[in-house]
Amino acid sequence: MRKNRGVTLVLALLASGCVESEPPTGTAFENVTVLDAVGGLRENQRVVVDGDRIVSVSAMADPHTPAAETIDGDGRVLIPGLWDMHVHYLYDAALTDVMPSLFLRYGITSVRDTGGELTGMTALRERLATSDAPAPRLFFSGPLLDGQFVVYDGGDPGRPVLGTSVPTVDVARQRVRDLKAAGADFIKIYELVDPAVFEVLADEARALDLPIAAHVPLMMTADAAGPLADSMEHLRNIELACAANWQELLDVRQNLIREFVEGRGADLRSGLHTLQRLPAVAAYDEARCDVVLDALSQTTQVPTLRLNASGMVRRFDEPDWLPALAMLPDEVQRRWQAQADRQREAAPGTDHTFAEWSLFLTARLKAHDVPIGAGTDTPIGLGIPGYSLHTELELLVESGLTPLEALHAATVQPARFFGLDDEMGQVEVGMRADLVLLDGNPLEDIRNTRRIQGVMTQGRWLP
Fold first, then answer.
1. The pTM is what?
2. Is 4 left (phi over 0), alpha (psi -120 to 50) or beta?
3. Given CA atoms 240, 242, 245, 246 in this order, what sign does their dihedral have?
4. Are residues 136 and 280 in the same domain?
5. Which of 127, 128, 201, 224 has its CA 20 to 30 A from that of 239?
6. Which of 361, 355, 351 has its CA nearest to residue 242?
C-alpha cells in the first residue's frame, strides 16, 4: 500500500505541474539551409548547439524541444566554420593582436599557423586561451625547419626570424622532439634541408604522431618529397619535377647548393627560383607531370593561389579592399597602401607565367584526385587576415574546382590533415560548434561566402 501511495503522489504532482521540468539549454538555428561538403544542401533545417557541440540537426517540421536561445535563419545558409591552412601570425608584429578578431569577422574559425618562432607561438596560444575575447582555434608548427642555411633568418627588413637551422640528422631528431614537448600540432619542413635530414624529420614526426607540412626541398623533387609529407605548400618546385629536363635542372640545382659555403639562405633560395622556375614551366611535360601528380595522391596541396597570382589578380583594385584594409592598424594601412601603389606602377611589366601556371596546375591536381586545402600565406603579400581566404576560394573555383569542392578545401580537408574530420568540417550531430551563417548560397556563387550574417566559434555566437 505504501508503494502505491507513492506512485499516486508522483502522478498527482506531475498532473498539477508541481514537479519542475529542466530549463531549456543551447542555441537553435531555425529555418536554415544547411550546407557542408559531405552532406550537401538540406533546406528548412533546425540545428541545435549546446556548449561546444552540435547536438541536433533535424527538419523544422520534426518534433523538437525548445532551446534557451533561438536564431531565426530566415532561409539563410549555415555552413561549417572555415579554415585558413596557411597563416603566419608572427610575420608582422603590428598585425598579430588584431588577426584573431579579423579571422572571425570573415568566418575563419580555425587557423593553421605554418611557421613562427616557438616561444612566441606558445605565448600567443596561451593569450588566446585565457582571454575573454573570442578567437579561432589555433594549430601551430613552430619554426620552419630549414637546412644549414636558413631562409627566414631575420636578416631582411620586415622579414622576421621564422626558421631554424637543422643541419644534421641528430639535430633533426631533437628538433622534432622539442616541438612535440612544447605543444606543436605539426611540423613544417622548409626548402634548404638536406634530403637525409628531410627523411629523418618525417620519420621522427610520424613516430610522435605529428602531421607534416613541407615545401619541396630544393635538393629533391616533388614526387620524392611529397609522399613523405601530409601537405605541401604553394605548388612551389613542382614545376621542376614536371619539366621534361627535370633531371638536368635538379643536377644544376644540387651542385649550386653544394657549392654554397658562405652567404644567406634567402639569397640562395631566391637565386635558384629566379634561375630555374620559368625555364621549368616552359619545359612542362604532361606525361612526366602525370607521374609526379600520381605520386602526390595522398598529400594535400595548399596552392595559396591568392599569393601566387597576386600580381595578376590585384585584389587591391576591388571595391571591397579599401574597407577591409581600413580594419587594420594605421601603420599597416600606410605600408600596404604604398605597396599596392608600387605594384600598380609596375603592373605593365609584370610576368604572369607563375600565376597562370598555378591556376593550370590546380586544375591538373583536381584531375588526378590530389587533395586540395585552402590557405593564403596571410599576411604575406598584402594578405588581409580572413578577407584573403575568400579570395582563395574564388581562385580555386576559377581554376576548375566546383564551389562545393572549394568549401571542402576550407572545411573538411584541413580537419582531415589533423585527423579531426570526425569532429570538424560538417554540420552534423557531434561536430564542433564552429558555424557561419551566410546571406547567400555559395553553390550558386562562391562569392556568397563573403556575405556573413554571423559566426559561431566554439559555441559562442557572434552576430
1. 0.94
2. alpha
3. positive
4. yes
5. 201
6. 361
Please count the other Cβ atoms lying within 10 Å of the Cβ belonging to residue 20: 6
Q: For residue 78, what is the enclosing H or E element?
A: strand 77-80
- What's the number of CA atoms in the CB half-sphere (13 Å) around residue 40? 1
Domain with residue 53: its CATH number is: 2.30.40.10
Q: Which residues on neighbouring strands pair with residue 32, listed in sequence order?
A: 45
Which pLDDT belongs to residue 304?
98
Please state, as a whole number, how many other Cβ atoms lie within 10 Å of the Cβ of residue 248. 11
Residue 22 is predicted with a pLDDT of: 82
Domain-located, residue 412? yes
**Rounded to whole angstroms, what are the CA distances from 51 to 68, 180, 344, 347, 435?**
12, 29, 48, 50, 13
Low-confidence ranges of the chain (pLDDT < 70): 1-20
At 12 the pLDDT is 45
- List, for residues 54-71, the tens digit of each pLDDT value: 999 999 999 998 999 999
Q: In this structure, are 341 and 254 located in the same domain? A: yes
Q: Give the domain-ending residue among 388, 404, 421.
A: 421
Q: What is the CATH number of the domain that holds 401?
A: 3.20.20.140
125/196 same-domain check = yes
All cell numbers assigned to 17: 505541474
- Whole-number pLDDT of residue 339: 96
Dump the DSSP string for 278-307. Answer: HHHHHTB-HHHHHHHHHHTTTSEEE--HHH
| Residue 124 in grid coordinates | 600567443
Residue carrying C-alpha cell 591568392: 306
Kindly report the three-state secondary structure assignment for every residue of 18-61.
Answer: CCCCCCCCCEEEEEEEEEECCCEEEEEEEEEEECCEEEEEEECC
Taking phi over 0 as left and psi of -120 to 50 as alpha, with beta for the rest, 114 belongs to: alpha
Return the closest-CA partner of residue 104 out of 384, 385, 301, 431: 385
- Please check whether residue 79 is in contact with residue 427, taking contact to mean a CB–CB distance below 8 angstroms: yes
What are the phi and psi torsion angles at 137 (to 5°)? -65, 140
DSSP string, 417-453: HTT-TTTSSS-STTSBS-EEEESS-TTT-GGGGG-EE
Q: What is the pLDDT of residue 348?
A: 87
Q: Is 228 helix (H, G, I), strand (E, B) or coil?
A: helix
Number of domains in the chain: 2
**Residue 452 domain boundaries:** 18-80+425-463
Alpha-carbon gap, residue 57 to 40, rounded angstroms: 14
Task: Report residue 259 as a C-alpha cell.
Answer: 657549392
